[in-house]
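Appendix B. Raw example, untouched.
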Amino acid sequence: AEKLSSMKDMDWNDFLQRVCSLLDSTEKNTGTARSKLNLLHYLCTVAVRKEVASRLISSQLFPILIQQLRVAANWDLRAKVARVMGLLALHTSELGENVPVSEAIILLTELIRENFRNSKLKQCFLPALGELLYLIA
């Protein structure tokens, strides 16, 4: 996380491009899903740094996270994406106007409504929804 927060813009853009391309991959095999889960777990660990969280939430990563939350067939992936979004919202120090937070809130609300009886999923989505609401309040 320290290395990420001290990266130069060019290195940061390369890192972000690799992260986004892996998350945006449409391959449907087990290895890809496992790679995405591992990457999301890594993002959870680095999102606790304010500098990193602020840079990540303001980047093209946040819309890709929203897209993954919408299209991922694997519920583990959706839960981890929601966790990353919640951690980014919790630890960011600034929120730009271009960050699609309202879209994320609407999607999380819809997912909670659709899966109302599944308490495990609600436990995954509610914290992220709460952090996003607190961030914009």
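End of appendix B.
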